[in-house]
Structures are given as C-alpha cells and as structure tokens.
Design a protein that fits this description.
Length: 451
C-alpha cells in the first residue's frame, strides 16, 4: 500500500477524517531541521559577558537574603556585577557563614571566603565560567545549616524559622511563588524530625518542589558546570545570629524578619496548599455554627513541660463550660494522639489557639489570618519563639502568667526563666477561660478567606 494512503488512514483513525491529501510531498521529512531561536527563559546561557545576567540583591536582613541571578560554581557562590566594589561592601557573613570542612588531619576548620563567596566582574565571569552556564529556573530556598550542628531536624526550627523567614523575604518584592527546589547543605537525615512533621510538610505544602541535599550539591561541585539560580533565598542561621540586631539580643534567628515589609496576604499561597490538602481529605474547616468561634487547646499534659495537674483540671472544666453554653467550639487535643492530617485540619479551622509553650503552637501558621494565640508560661519568664511566629503571619499574641497577661513592653526585660520546662506551670483556669472567651468573641466575624 502506498505510503500516502497509510498516512491518510492513520490520520483518520487518530483524529477523524480531514481534508484529502493531494500531495505526498508534504509528508516527506526534510534532510535537515532548522533550529528555532531559544526562548528568553532558556536553560542555557552563553558565557559571553554580554549574555550573563547581573546578580541583584532584592531584599533581606542578616541571615535571610533574596537574590536574582546568583551563580554557583565548584562550591562557591558568585555575585556577577558591574558594581564590584559596591557589592563587596556587603560582608559575606551577612549572607552565608558557619561553613566548615575537614582539613588534612580531619579537623573541622572554617572554609576560606574565596571558597564560599566571591564578587566578580562580567569579564572575570566570562573567563571563569566555561563552556556554558546552566540556569536553574524558578525560586530556590538554600538552607545553610550543615549536617552538624544542625537545627533543621525540628518542625519549628525548619518550618517556622528558616522556611517562613525565607518566604517572607521573597514576598517583600511582591512575589508569591512556592519554591521550585529547596537545597539543604546537610544530609537528608539531618532535616528529619522524630515526628516526621518536616517530611509531611515538605510533601503536602510543596508537592512539586524538588528536595536536594548534600549529595546533590556534591554532584554540582564535581560536575565542573557553572550554574545560575534565577531567584534564590539563602537562609543562614549563623549569619543571622552574627549580624542581626534582634537575633543577637533575643537569641532568635528570625528576630529581624518581622521588620521586612510584605503584603498583608503574603503567606496565602503556602497556607492554601495545606488548606487544599486537608479539604481533599474530607476535613471540614468551617465552624459547626457560623457564629461560634473555634478554640483549639493544645493540651500538653502528657509531656514534660505542662500545667500543674490541678490547674489543668480547672482549665479543662472552665473551657468545657464555655463549650456547653455554646459560646465556643472547643477542641481539646493532645497532638501526639491524632494524625498529622487532623492536626493541620484543626489548626486551619481554629480562631483561637491556647497552649503551654511547645511544638504544637507551630501549627498557628495554618490558622486563618487575624487569629489569636495564647501561650501559658511560668510567671516571670518569656520565650519569643511563638510571638515572633504570630507577628510574621499576622496573629494577635498574648503571654499568660497564671492569672494575668504579660505585656509586650516587658518582654525585653526577662529571659525564659529557670522553671521554663516545669511540669507544674501555674494557670488560673477561670482567668484563662475568660481571656479565651474574650478573644473568641472578638473573632466572630473573622471568616475563612477564599482560595
């Protein structure tokens, strides 16, 4: 059977009957192809100086810095610019520090600056980067914690500090985008927490984000290929503590991050990912009664840091009374006893979150904007972890000292206190319940935003 007939039959089978083929010449493959011009977002860049995009520092505070077109070659980040002297004024340890390697004797030593961070001209880049630069498109988050010491194996330290800080800095430019990739300088094991919340978060909140770690960085180093990260945030705990004003004062890595100005709804893309996941599971994040706010009590009575037993019983009684009266919709939950999906579901629906200082309060990230967080601590002490988180995501925060609140203006005068990890933290049940009711009633009209 002639080729033209076979082609006609094949065409009609796949796509339906089309115009009659009048010339077999239109189906003869050419002996050569014309290569189309590469699109502007092409993955490969000529190393000619005129073709290399300039590095820009878009926004940042110590330890959290957002760049466009930051280069990576060998194991070194390169700023390529026509303002070399100006960019060199930014001390590199403001961006990335704490990098160590083993010397010939196996001792841990600081990596020299020239092996970590360099600022070079376009002409120097043209000479150095051969034969082609590979572009890594999209947003990259680079976590600079090494395998040891490493704080990323904890839900709060990874998600509520480094991830949230990086995303807020990126949003300062009005950009709303989940990362194309996250890079961990440490091993995969060093980012895993004992409850597997970090893994759960990475897969649910960012299902299409590539997770890269030390082994991938080693491959890039050994490849001999220069790369340029189209957009990248470097999150470095030690840089923040070394140069940050509030991190040094409070020993909290995100101390300066709330000062970064962002749009009011900057965190919506990340929260929406979690929200879509819990909705798909069948979770109903609506109030049972639209006029009755939801209170989530993160109960820690099965842990070391907890309320005095009698106070815990009194608080449970008072909160349940409000629930029975129809004034609040109460969820009294020990987080370790429910599934991860249920934990995130409860957080998404809550208007008020109450609890003793602990990992469960990290879930305030998933509450609707404008919610309230009430944290119970030992009298005379204050830890800033969860008030900083509340400030970043737009919640109202209160510290409770037994039978009174501890005002913000006094936080700077105290540390967390010697009995911070006590198993007998005091809390006046009646006072706490009244405060919960007040915060709940203030949020009757605080509705769940649309997707």
């Amino acid at each position: 059977m002639p080729m033209v007939v076979l082609l006609a039959i094949f065409s009609s089978m796949r796509y339906g009957v089309h115009d009659v083929i009048t010339s077999p010449k239109s189906y003869i493959l050419p002996s050569s192809f014309t290569t189309p011009a590469p699109p502007k977002s092409h993955n490969y860049i000529s190393t000619r100086a005129a073709d290399l995009p300039q590095t820009e520092l878009v926004a940042g505070v110590a330890g959290f810095n957002y760049f466009r077109n930051l280069y990576y070659f060998g194991s070194t980040f390169y700023v390529v610019t026509d303002e070399v002297e100006e960019m060199k004024k930014i001390e590199y340890t403001y961006v990335i520090t704490g990098l160590k390697k083993e010397d010939a004797e196996g001792k841990s030593v600081e990596i020299p600056v020239e092996e970590t961070w360099q600022v070079i001209s376009f002409e120097e880049a043209e000479e150095l980067f051969k034969p082609v630069v590979v572009r890594k498109n999209g947003l990259t988050l680079f976590y600079a914690d090494a395998t040891s010491p490493n704080f990323l194996g904890h839900y709060f330290h990874l998600v509520a500090e480094m991830f949230l800080g990086a995303m807020r800095v990126q949003a300062a430019d009005g950009e709303y985008e989940l990362p194309a990739r996250t890079i961990y300088r440490g091993t995969a094991a060093s980012r895993r927490d004992r409850y597997a919340l970090n893994e759960w978060f990475n897969e649910i909140a960012m299902p299409n984000t590539a997770l890269e770690d030390q082994s991938v960085l080693q491959d890039r180093t050994h490849s001999g290929i220069p790369y340029v990260y189209e957009r990248i945030v470097i999150a470095d705990r030690w840089a923040a503590h070394k140069h940050g004003k509030n991190p040094r004062r409070w020993n909290k890595v995100t101390g300066d991050v709330p000062d970064v100005q962002v749009p009011a709804d900057w965190f919506r893309p990340v929260r929406n990912s979690i929200k879509l996941a819990v909705l798909a599971s069948g979770c109903d994040i609506r109030r049972k009664d639209p006029s009755v706010p939801v209170v989530l009590y993160v109960n820690r009575q099965d842990t070391g840091r907890r309320l005095l037993a009698e106070d815990a019983e009194s608080l449970a009684f008072e909160l349940d009374a409000l629930h029975q009266q129809g004034l609040i919709e109460l969820h009294d939950v020990q987080m370790g006893k429910v599934s991860k999906l249920e934990q995130f579901c409860l957080a998404c629906k809550a208007d008020v979150m109450l609890g003793v200082h602990g990992n469960g309060l990290t879930h305030q990230m998933w509450m609707k904007p404008g919610s309230a967080v009430l944290e119970m601590m030992t009298v005379g002490g204050h830890a800033r972890d969860y008030n900083l988180l509340a400030d970043m995501v737009g919640h109202q925060y209160e510290t409770i000292h037994n039978n009174h609140t501890f005002p913000r203006e006094k936080w700077g005068s105290v540390g967390q206190g010697k009995n911070f990890h006590s198993s007998s933290i005091r809390a006046d049940g009646k006072f706490v319940a009244e405060l919960v009711l007040q915060k709940a009633q203030e949020r009757i009209k605080n509705i769940e935003p649309s997707l």
